[in-house]
Specification:
single chain, alpha+beta, 4-stranded antiparallel β-sheet, 6 helices, 4 strands
Length: about 180
């Protein structure tokens, strides 16, 4: 989950500008940010190579493809068969994300479906997978906070660091 890449304040400014105008050219970004075109180009290339930039598939809304329902499926699995489970889940097109979890549940899958009948079919496919011991499905009724990183990018662009805590060695005053 962690790309290992570190985004500095200049990278964050570039990413914020891209978030605000995804189709902006490198030249337009450079002008808007007061940076050279080569700097913007090099930093974007570095961010892509490092894994700091994710897939552009997030731009696509599943409902536009005919999959308006979102559900979250928790799975308990045989840990010895985790690679098989992951491969089986990846083979189901409607499974759009899977996370390994700590605690009583092993995996969390985000699933999209055309309707309730389709969701039932997908849940059955997941349960029938190798190494899957138990599942539980929860239908997402409403999205309250969409996927977003702008507040974090704004923080990094201002402070140059990823958390609101003071740099190492400096303490906040008491009081």
């Amino acid at each position: 989950m962690n790309s290992g890449a570190v985004v500095d304040s200049t990278d964050a400014r570039i990413l914020l500008a891209l978030a605000r105008e995804p189709r902006a050219t490198v030249q337009a970004l450079a002008q808007r940010l007061g940076l050279s075109r080569n700097t913007v180009q090099a930093r974007l290339a570095k961010l892509e190579l490092s894994g700091a930039l994710g897939s552009r598939e997030r731009w696509v809304v599943p409902g536009a493809l005919g999959y308006p329902l979102t559900a979250f499926v928790t799975l308990r699995v045989d840990q010895h068969r985790l690679p098989e489970v992951a491969d089986a889940l990846a083979a189901i097109p409607e499974v759009v994300e899977v996370f390994g979890l700590s605690g009583d549940t092993d995996l969390l899958a985000r699933v999209v479906a055309a309707d309730a009948e389709d969701l039932y079919r997908i849940a059955g496919q997941i349960l029938a997978g190798p190494g899957v011991e138990r599942t539980s499905t929860a239908l997402a009724i409403r999205e309250l906070v969409s996927h977003r990183l702008t507040p974090l990018l704004e923080r990094v662009s201002r402070t140059g660091r990823s958390s609101a805590s003071p740099p190492m060695g400096r303490q906040r005053p008491a009081g």
